[in-house]
Design goal:
This protein is an alpha/beta fold and 573 residues long. The protein is built from 16 helices and 28 strands. Strands 4-3-2-1-5-6 form a six-stranded mixed sheet, with helices on both faces. The chain is globular.
Amino acid sequence: MSKSYTRTTKEIEENIQALCSYIRKAGLDGAYISSFDIFMNEYVPMEECVRYYFTGFSGSVADVLLTSSGECYLFVDGRYHEQADLEVKASNVKIEKCPFGVSLFSALCEKAIELNIDSLWLDGDRTPLGHYEEFKTIVSKTCIESTNHLREFIELPTFKKDATISKVGNLLSSKEKAALFLKKGEAFWLNSLDSIAWITNMRGYGLPFQSSFMGRCFITNESVELAIPSHYDCVVEDEFIKVTKCEIDSFSKDLKVDPSISKIYYDPALINLTDYLVLSEKFNKENLLERESGIIFIHAIKSASEMSYMDDSFARSDQAIVDTLKWLKKGFHEDQTITEMDFFNKTTECYENRGSLEHSFGTISAFGSNSSIMHYSTPSKDLLAEDGMLALLDSGGYFEGGFATDTTRTIYLGKSVASDKQKEIYTLVLKGLLQAQAAIFPEGTWGSYIDALARTPILQAGYNYAHGTGHGVGINVHEGGLRFSPTSSIPINIGNVGSIEPGIYLPGFGGVRLENIVSVVKHPTLVGMLCFRPLVYIGFDHSLINFSLLNEVEKNWLSEYEEECRHRGTLLD
């Protein structure tokens, strides 16, 4: 986070007081603050993360409910419980730790009911339509304004980054892609940035941790109308794509639609309230139709050309990670002074050396007890690598083609032997990864099945982890269309790409997470069955494995996997 965008505890408390005073004067009971930008993004530049300026919490996912009496409730899931405790200092911010499986927004709505909140202020630019529809069922009045209105009484910076948008070759054309989900007379309003990058076959790196770029799309089977910021440099090589440079939030107001278009689809979870209200005024509401998940289930199934880009990206990413971890182990055993920040910076260097254009998320480089913080984001300049520590590296990048990589390895820093507890939790996590990665299942199997395979060895030993086992991976590092969690009813299909990342986290002691990315393919011999093909080939730290906890089948899986690592030169030992 840039220093110029940080806020002191006093400034955060003053921001809360200013907004609470405003809603009191407006006769409102509360205010909702999301973590989103106007594009409903997951990874939002800190300058654009309004939620940060009311809480001091820098994690990527959280929701906030403010009351007119001056209380601020921050809702975080299990990935961020420990981080929120460490970061939130304002006395009037109360951390609401949601248990695994409970959505943040549902918990926030329940709190609003509990507090008898009957009228609510909303930032229409950063509130998804779906949230607004839910709010209407619990409050009798909403006041919808824009982020700019907040700037009248709170200092909020703006994010601006130049970007050059370029085409990715050897992919299905935009016209062919549009034909997959639109008929004549139909259109789609699109503001999900990874979906825009997919439909246009363009990449821009206009935002942190993304290969996509700021924009809006209106798609028919005749054209893609693409709006981008005026400061972007863009050369269009496809006559099907019509580019307009403008203020992004004015695109919906200025949009002109052919009268022959009778159906305009949108995703209620990914269109912001402001855009929806503008579109509903311009066009008959009867012509605006919900299509949940937008087009994500289409681009969640990767083509052969897309898989070729991803295979190359993961091969490069594997080498960058191995380079980093071998550097760390070598330096440690040579008694070099290495801090967490050194570890972080070396990771960036190794990715760049292998051709990375951008990180796909903020690198997690953690020593010792910090490895138990699932999304640890503040590597220390003072914490040194010491004997007996666990070191966790969760990292990813973008290479040619603009598809994200994501991999986690945990290693042991020790001249002494790892403790029994360290070996136990590492081996249990490894068992979970091996069990899930070796799964054989029919097409359409729910993601919850894979989660159970990975989680069972860990549960049987009395541990658990407060996150899902896996997520989709594509242009965004967290892509919809695939999810491995206890509650996931999303079917698994050929061409899906996703993570398998079980973990065990013991606050004050340390944590282990092991993550591979896999693609879904037909089983080579069993008719009608599917299996996983690993995209990540990086060996494991044998100094942390208690082989007596692995059965013979698991030992064979490990041996076969590491034989391929040996062939690729990506063993750690």
